[in-house]
Design goal:
The structure is a single chain. With 541 residues, this protein is an alpha+beta fold. The protein folds into two domains: 255 residues, Alpha-Beta Plaits; 133 residues. 48% of the residues lie in helices and 9% in strands. The chain has a four-stranded mixed β-sheet with strand order 8-1-10-9. Strand 4 and strand 5 form a beta hairpin. The radius of gyration is 27 Å and the shape is elongated. The two termini are 30 Å apart.
């Protein structure tokens, strides 16, 4: 079914989805409770949620409810990023989870624009301690891994065996739609033009949440009442920004909690370490850095990269499954990062034993591949607008190279007799990379609002900018130039500034300016009709 109402022809393969009538939903939460009952979800985990939205100013107040959860997208952003294949899409369009192969890395969770994923750690109980009832329905396989709505896939599969029709036979339909007391939730096959969901979507106006992301979600929201005033557009942009700046607004995306300081440490340590390898190798071939010094620096970089990877290991939910991160090189940048590591360390060891130009290059290229994979990991996370800005890969790579020059400058300032690299090379690289990073950050901020970064995240970026410009951009530019002209000891301060600036913005972007997409309501439902309807009283707000 297309958004313009054109019916899709039957293909023989169903495409399951849901239609939600926003005018019928009364906010009773029956769907939420039935989902929890059917799927035994622990406290705080709601695969089917109902947002309680209030707009207007007393006495002209409008209240409405919006059912949200996994959208089972046609192009689910969570599937290609998964490094293990635990998240997959079936032929009927349902996005499923295989708990036994999930490592709990959280990559699918930060990639979901609909806040539909959770990771539980098995220590939450409704009454503070474990009860017999909870123990009886506890799912060990879900501890430390990602979980989500599956549209009660086991019921759908059972329907096939029993010759039943999901969406018509309630026992073989998702628990939420089967239990809805207001007939607001409808489930069925969009590839069947005679199905209930196809007819509802054909006969009524609907929207899909965040269509602009190209995911084509398969929950479609009806927002008009037939023979009444058409659905209304949302508030003007300035008013909308004000509303989306309020953390209490249920439509506002919460700050992601899946990747914390441990993930930030991987990007910080991994970025500067891989950047050091690349810049040191360039210095070796182009600026006189000795083979011995290059090997010393590469070993130090390897230790730094290992520290970052150790922090990632600490963060994953199922640590002993870490090897499964090797399973999806065809699509997951996290898997590709792992392969870059698998090349880097053996190549570094070989280079220590049999130093040579070829091995130097292999070590440097694998480090550069690692840095690039890190950049793409963040950019591929569609659920975090601040990460998916188009300049993110360039910004991370350029920052890593600047940090690499900074570490090279520190080495030069501390032990110049061992690092005979041309001061001109370090100074020129530092100045140019600092200038480039300053210009890229400026462009990143300019693109942030255009690319959908929410107000709360933009506020964190603006708060960071003055310190970053001073410490991470301006200071390295001038200090690198002064060091080459007056005193190479200034390389130490310049290098520390460059490294500090990179660590500063990575930590902020990953752990502070990391608000999730938030929920979208491009059309407001009417919530009634006639003279007493909310739209009439609110003057079309």
């Amino acid at each position: 079914m297309s958004p313009d109402g054109e019916a899709l022809g039957a293909t023989g393969t169903p495409r399951y989805g849901m239609v939600v009538d926003l005018n019928r939903c009364v906010g009773c939460q029956t769907c939420t409770i039935s989902c929890k009952h059917a799927n035994d979800t622990p406290p705080g985990v709601q695969w089917r949620k109902v947002l309680d939205i209030e707009r207007g100013t007393f006495p002209d107040v409008e209240r409405l409810f919006m059912v949200v959860g996994c959208q089972h997208c046609d192009e689910p952003p969570c599937v290609p990023v998964c490094p293990t294949g635990a998240t997959a899409q079936r032929a009927d369009g349902l996005v499923t989870m295989t708990y036994d192969t999930c490592i709990g890395c959280g990559y699918c969770a930060v990639s979901c624009p609909y806040q539909a994923r959770t990771i539980g750690h098995g220590d939450d109980w409704y009454y503070g301690e474990e009860t017999k009832q909870e123990a009886h329905v506890f799912h060990d396989e879900r501890v430390g891994v990602a979980t989500k709505c599956t549209f009660c896939v086991e019921r759908i599969d059972e329907a096939k065996e029993e010759g039943k029709t999901p969406g018509i036979d309630l026992e073989y339909s998702p628990a939420c739609s089967s239990s809805c007391i207001a007939s607001a939730l409808h489930f069925g096959d969009f590839n069947d033009p005679d199905s209930n969901v196809s007819k509802l979507a054909t006969q009524n106006s609907f929207f899909q949440m965040h269509e602009e992301l190209g995911t084509n979600p398969q929950i479609k929201y009806l927002y008009e009442v037939p023979n009444a005033t058409p659905g209304r557009d949302p508030a003007p942009k300035d008013i909308e920004d004000e509303m989306m700046s309020d953390p209490a607004n249920p439509l506002v995306g919460a700050r992601q909690m899946f990747w914390d300081y441990r993930a930030a440490m991987n990007f910080i340590m991994g970025g500067m370490s891989s950047g050091l390898v690349v810049m040191a190798t360039i210095g070796h071939f182009a600026a006189g850095l000795s083979t011995e010094a290059l090997l010393y620096l590469n070993v130090a970089a390897g230790i730094g990269m290992g520290i970052g990877l150790f922090f990632v290991f600490l963060e994953i939910g199922r640590k002993m499954r870490f090897w499964r991160a090797l399973m999806r090189p065809q699509s997951s940048w996290m898997t590709r990062e792992t392969y870059a590591v698998a090349v880097f360390y053996p190549a570094l060891l070989a280079d220590l034993l049999w130093p040579g130009a070829a091995l130097h290059l292999v070590v440097a290229l694998s480090a550069l591949a690692f840095l690039y994979c890190q950049a793409r990991i963040l950019h591929a996370a569609k659920g975090i607008p601040a990460w998916r800005v188009g300049l993110m890969p360039t910004m991370l790579v350029m920052t890593g190279l600047l940090e690499g020059v900074g570490l090279l400058g520190i080495a030069k300032g501390v032990a110049s007799w061992q690092f005979e690299t041309s001061m001109v090379f370090i100074a020129t690289g530092g100045v140019l990379l600092a200038l480039g990073n300053m210009l890229i950050w400026r462009s990143y901020l300019a693109f942030a609002q255009r690319d959908g970064v929410p107000p709360l995240a933009r506020a964190e970026l603006q708060k960071l900018t003055p310190a970053l410009r001073l410490v991470g951009h301006v200071a390295p530019m001038f200090l690198f130039a002064l060091a080459a002209a007056f005193s190479q000891s200034l390389f130490i301060i310049a290098g520390l500034a460059a490294v500090s600036g990179g660590a500063m913005w990575k930590f902020t972007v990953i752990t502070r300016a990391c608000h999730q997409q938030g929920f979208a309501m491009p059309k407001m439902p009417q919530r009634g009709s006639g003279d007493r309807a909310a739209p009439s009283r609110l003057g079309g707000l």
